[in-house]
Amino acid sequence: MNFIFRTSYWLVLLLFFNSCESIPFFKDSFNSKPTVFATLPQIEGASDKRTRYEFSGKEIIIASDHPLASQAGMEVWKQGGNVVDVFAAASFAISVLRPHSTGLFGGGFAVVHLPAKGKWAYDFRERSPKKGVASFYLKEDGTVIPEKTLKGPYSAGVPGTVQGILQIQKQHGKLPLSSILAPALRYARVGFSVYGDLAFAITKTWQQMNPAMQKVFGIDNRAIREGELLVQEDFAKTLERIMENAEKEFSDGETVQLVSRYYSEYQEFITLEDFKNYQVKVSDPLVSSVWGHTILSMPPPSSGVHLVTMMHLYSEMQNRDTFPKGDVGEVIRITEAMRVAFRDRAELGGDPLYTNIPVSKLLSQAYAKEETNEIERKVVSGSWPPSQEEPKKPESYNTTHISILDKDGNAVSTTQSVNGIFGAVQMVPGTGLILNNTMDDFAVAPGVPNLYGLVGSKANSIEPGKTPLSSMSPSILLDSTGKTKIVIGAPGGSQIPTSIFNTLYRYLIQKRDLYESVSYPRIHHQFRPDQIFLDPEIKDSYPQSELPFYQVQYIRHRAKVFAVTREGDRLIGVSDPKGEGVPLGF
Ligand code: DON
Fold it and tell me: Does residue 478 sit within a domain?
């Protein structure tokens, strides 16, 4: 057994290196960076990692959270694909490579900008199944049944990833599905070496996995370890069926039949009808002028609108000389902008088909002025209301983002997720697919914090067919001449909008370069709990003693930013040095 395992492991390494040879830029970047098979560095440090996490080119750049996902994108680009083909190939590949973060039983958003053709916002996020109603998660006395939205078969929403990727690719891509799916299929069937972050996720969730899942993520009845081979044969078969049947596979194909059989033991919580009724939602991106650029972001139920409110509020405060100067002033402006944006999110956020979200108002100058007046009163009078502290729920490492930009300004910004680590930690037997636990993104009851400590209102309550509120905020920024300048997004739960804010702040306002902007220690506030979270490296610049009106926690910001920018005739990509990915390109 051991011998077979080792032999196949080295065979895979050999195959992998051979396949890299055929992709010159991958080979170059690969050679200059630590290999994916080595234990990857975690977060500390920064500048010495630049060679690994930054990459520049002239034609196209993709930044993702796994070298092989970036490679999948470049593989189809070399075959004559466009940015949408790159998006589709990299998305399927990352589902195989980061199954603890995202997958075909998950959901996501994509903002697509093709200057010669148009711009779109695609919502392929999970929807509450027909049986998904709030009372399903509550005891008779109205209190929440612990963990029911978090783990197990009832925590999953109806997935949209496959329908989303296929619809976008069908509308704008050039290559056949066989080419798009080839890299993902190869990674699932031939396997790849388990890296540190994935090994951690497997060990952490091992006890909760159902038998089908333990079979895939175990060797000899124990969790697979770092450096060992992960083969996902059932997943490969599902990919083959998608290759053959395209979107029909997820409306009435064998895969959804297997899902329906699985749910026959769980009150038929998700049914074939739920899959048949699933619709990808296509709309215009949310557009706003901010910081000398035009931002195209994802509309609600994403948090794009709150990200933009944050940016407007910051500008308004910066224009007033009543705010303190220096580091303290900076922290106040950023924190108070975040507090308002997350308050709005908690009070108003939800599926726009079920609740009214006053997007134009939240993006208006009048609103930024009005809210800044309130903050100014507090700052000038020095009468800060006492902090309202609530327990902080732990964050987890999952979800993923891919940013792609080519020399003609064509861009895709996509964030995809199964929500928590390995979602519901249940595999549908025979499919290789792991259920999401995105029902937890609803507010199960007003004021009850979710996995990310976020609270919500009735606007985000559970109702059949509804889409849960999301922090995912994929965005694209155009410069003042209308050319695509930045493609950006992040995983990281509630820290997603603030990581994008921090990066854009360092890049556009402070004029740091992209790598520094992504790696720079971050400032985070999410309304509840009423605390500022600062990366430990900036403790000396922002000691608690100078911020007596705030409760400060020096805790590492978890979100990982993936961004590509255009600077002159060069494209520069950065995959967050906290992660496992690399940007690649030509
Ligand atoms: O859509 C959301 O807001 C969450 N499902 C995102 C989860 C996430 O980013 C987890 N990452 N650490």
Answer: yes
CB 395 within 8 A of CB 385: no
**Alpha-carbon distance 116 to 484, whole Å?**
12
The closest alpha carbon to 110, from 302, 333, 378, belongs to 302
Contact 105, 159 (CB under 8 A): yes
| Residues forming a β-bridge with 44 | none
Q: Which of 127, 438, 439, 472 to mutate to test the pocket of ligand 1 (most atoms within 8 A of CB)?
A: 472
475 forms beta bridges with: 297, 488
What pLDDT sits at residue 386? 83
Give the model confidence (pLDDT) of 37-84 as tens digits: 223 333 344 557 899 999 999 999 999 999 999 999 999 999 999 999
Describe the strand order of the beta sheet including 484-489 as a list of residue ranges: 54-57, 570-575, 562-567, 484-489, 475-478, 293-297, 286-290
Ligand 1 close to Cβ of residue 468 (< 6 A): no
- Is the distance from the beta carbon of residue 232 to the nearest atom of ligand 1 less than 6 Å? no
Whole-number Å distance, alpha carbon 395 to ligand 1 midpoint, is: 9
Arithmetic mean of pLDDT, 370-379: 97
**Residues contributing to the annotated binding site:** 125, 417-419, 441, 470-471, 493
Indicate if ligand 1 lies below 6 Å from the C-beta of 29: no
Cα dihedral value 419, 431, 112, 414, nearest 10: 30
How close is the Cα of 550 to the center of ligand 1, in Å?
A: 26
Q: Does residue 399 have an active-site annotation?
A: yes
Within a domain: 223:
no
Into how many domains does the chain fold? 1
Ligand 1 within 6 A of 471 CB?
A: yes
**Domain that residue 544 falls in:** 286-390+473-574
Token pair recorded at residue 567: 């600077």
Pairing label, strands 293-297, 218-219: unpaired
Average pLDDT, rounded, for the chain: 91
Strand partners, 289: 294
- Does residue 569 fall inside a structural domain? yes
Answer whether 344 contacts ligand 1 (Cβ < 6 A): no
The DSSP string of 441-501 is GS-SSTT---TTS----GGG---TTPPPP-----EEEE-TTS-EEEEEE---TTHHHHHHH
The answer to whether the beta carbons of residues 581 and 64 sit under 8 Å apart is: yes
Q: pLDDT tens digits, residue range 272-321?
A: 999 999 999 999 999 999 999 999 999 999 999 999 999 999 999 999 99
The CATH number of the domain holding residue 346 is: 1.10.246.130
Within 10 A of 66 (CB to CB), how many other CB atoms are there? 28
Among 238, 335, 399, 565, the one annotated catalytic = 399
Atom of ligand 1 nearest to the CA of 494: 3
- 239 in a domain, yes or no? no
Residues 190, 105 contacting (CB under 8 angstroms): no
